[in-house]
């Protein structure tokens, strides 16, 4: 009996040892995963917590406001888009030169680079650089200067690389910023085409007071800050890499302030203070210079211009600029060849003749084809529970696509008070306040039409009125073809005085600034 109990005790002891060993091994793996995991794995896990965001910056040089910049992070179902935009009147060799860059990094949900697209516009020929990684240690890209395309370049890189918009995010997400911490990152700048390994260090911590919101001051004709926000930030730099990022970042990796080697400083602030005030100052400067051009007013509504209904059937203009690449001049009712743009208003008799049936627009194949033009976006709340009932009240029992689109256009024109609001367009806010300018009425129309299954998109460009051109925004709705409409001016379809330059929201509209500042336009025909 004693021997039997002894054997049982030994078995229990052996089982306990096995259990403890397994528990210890599991604990060891957990500790290694949480505290000693490699940078790629750690960054990949942290990136899953990344949220969509948009930050705006005033651009200064030598203490003078010279431009505007923005960084937008869009988190998609299967990836992340990081978009940087920069436009400024830069002093180069004692001369002022309009320069703009737009850089898009397409990433996986774990921040791995999939592709990039970088565009530079300045006094010289425009430069377009596009590429993608080839494995973990190579990059393939092509450079287009003007209209001459170079062969693809195969470049060795030091492992998986990060593009400039992603560097601050990687620093903040890899480890919580703290003075004394160091980060070694492989980077690649499309503009310089230089891969490098940069050793970043956090060398300071401070509090910044930033403008959180702004309101328009009608007496001064510009925006002023209203609410301020205190943000904790850390200074990150790579002293041995002069082209690497240098600046202050918050805990989410959003830039608070950054310095460039050319003496340009970016300072984060509210959108209106960054963009609108710079645009107001630029337009005032343009208007004060006699004979510099016809494009003086910022928006059609702000200019209090008088419009008729659907007067112009066709319009042909000649465009002159250092480069007209990358704009949405051609397609639909617009025909662009060389430097000549012709706009033909849609004919009422055939408008909507090829529009898809209401039931067809709700089939999966149709939805997949137009997915990007039927979905909700930030501040464009398609499918919102406040918007859907309003749209169905507007269209009632009507199921003719043309008449449904026309009813919504008419309702917005009749129900929304047209005023210059100078805000970031927000469809739901416009529906609630019942007031807005062309950008906001367009935003509401697009959100409403997408809510009932119509592919709809935002168009921006110039509006010709009484011998002058005004910047303007209007919607295009799919009725078997893209049809321009204008709830701001109560036009269905919009007349031929609408010259479309870009398609899309803010990130595309801001590209108009660089072009308009250098644009010459001559009307060849208007009837």
Number of DSSP-assigned strands: 25
Q: Which shape, going by the Cα principal axes?
A: globular
| Helicity level | 10-25%
Number of helices: 11
Query: What structural category do the secondary elements indicate?
Result: alpha+beta
- Computed over alpha carbons, the radius of gyration is 28 Å
Quaternary structure: single chain
Query: Main sheet, how many strands, which sense, barrel?
Result: 15 strands, antiparallel
- Give unreliable regions as ranges: 27-38, 287-310
- % residues in beta strands: 35-45%
Span between termini:
114 Å
Textual characterization of the structure:
This protein is an alpha+beta fold and 527 residues long. The protein has helices at 2-35, 39-47, 167-174, 271-287, 364-369, 387-395, 401-415, 427-433, 438-451, 506-509, 511-516, and strands spanning 53-61, 64-75, 80-92, 95-107, 113-121, 127-133, 138-145, 148-149, 153-156, 182-189, 194-217, 222-237, 247-249, 255-259, 264-269, 314-320, 334-337, 340-344, 417-418, 435-436, 456-465, 468-478, 482-484, 498-503, 520-526. It has a 15-stranded antiparallel sheet that branches. A 4-stranded antiparallel sheet has the order 17-18-16-25, with no helix packed on it. Strands 23-22-21-24 form a 4-stranded antiparallel sheet. Helix 7 runs antiparallel to helix 9 (438-451). The N and C termini lie far apart (114 Å).
């Amino acid at each position: 009996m004693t021997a039997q109990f002894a054997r049982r005790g030994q078995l229990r002891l052996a089982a306990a040892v096995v259990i403890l060993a397994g528990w210890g091994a599991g604990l060891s793996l957990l500790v290694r995963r949480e505290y000693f995991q490699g940078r790629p794995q750690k960054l990949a896990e942290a990136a899953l917590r990344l949220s969509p965001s948009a930050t705006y910056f005033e651009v200064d040089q030598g203490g003078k406001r010279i431009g505007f910049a923005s960084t937008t992070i869009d988190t998609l179902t299967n990836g992340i888009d990081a978009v940087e935009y920069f436009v400024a009147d830069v002093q180069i060799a004692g001369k002022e030169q309009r320069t703009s860059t737009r850089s898009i990094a397409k990433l996986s949900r774990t921040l791995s680079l999939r592709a990039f697209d970088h565009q530079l516009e300045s006094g010289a020929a425009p430069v377009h650089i596009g590429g993608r990684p080839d494995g973990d240690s190579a990059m393939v890209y092509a450079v287009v200067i003007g209209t001459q395309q170079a062969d693809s370049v195969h470049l060795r890189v030091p492992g998986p690389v990060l593009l400039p918009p992603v560097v601050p995010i990687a620093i903040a997400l890899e480890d919580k910023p703290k003075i004394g911490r160091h980060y070694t990152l492989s980077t690649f700048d499309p503009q310089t085409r230089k891969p490098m390994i940069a050793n970043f260090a956090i060398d300071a911590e401070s509090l910044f007071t930033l403008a959180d919101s702004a309101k328009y001051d009608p007496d001064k004709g510009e925006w002023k800050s209203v609410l301020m926000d205190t943000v904790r930030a850390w200074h990150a730099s790579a002293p041995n890499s002069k082209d690497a990022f240098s600046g202050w970042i918050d805990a989410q990796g959003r830039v608070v302030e950054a310095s460039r080697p050319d003496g340009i400083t970016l300072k984060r602030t509210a959108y209106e203070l960054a963009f609108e005030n710079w645009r107001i100052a630029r337009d005032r400067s343009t208007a004060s210079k006699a004979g510099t051009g016809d494009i003086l007013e910022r928006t059609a509504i702000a200019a209090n211009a008088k419009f008729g209904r659907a007067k112009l059937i066709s319009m042909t203009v000649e465009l002159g600029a250092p480069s007209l690449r990358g704009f949405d001049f051609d397609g639909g009712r617009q025909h662009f060849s060389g430097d000549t743009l012709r706009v033909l208003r849609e004919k009422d008799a055939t408008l909507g003749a090829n529009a898809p049936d209401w039931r067809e627009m709700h089939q999966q194949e149709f939805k997949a084809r137009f997915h990007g033009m039927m979905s909700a976006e930030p501040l464009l709340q398609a499918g919102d529970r406040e918007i859907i009932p309003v749209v169905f009240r507007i269209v009632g029992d009507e199921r003719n696509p043309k008449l449904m689109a026309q009813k919504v256009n008419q309702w917005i024109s009749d129900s929304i008070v047209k005023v210059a609001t100078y805000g970031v367009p927000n469809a739901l806010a416009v529906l609630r306040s019942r007031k807005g300018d062309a950008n906001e009425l367009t935003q509401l129309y697009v959100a409403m039409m997408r809510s009932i299954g119509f592919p709809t998109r935002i168009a921006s460009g110039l509006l010709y009125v009484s011998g002058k051109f005004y910047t303007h925004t209007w919607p295009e709705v799919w009725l078997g073809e893209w049809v321009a409409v204008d709830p701001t001016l109560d036009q269905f379809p919009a007349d031929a005085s609408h010259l479309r330059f870009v398609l899309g929201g803010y990130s595309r509209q801001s590209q108009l600034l660089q072009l308009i500042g250098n644009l010459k336009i001559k009307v060849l025909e208007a009837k």
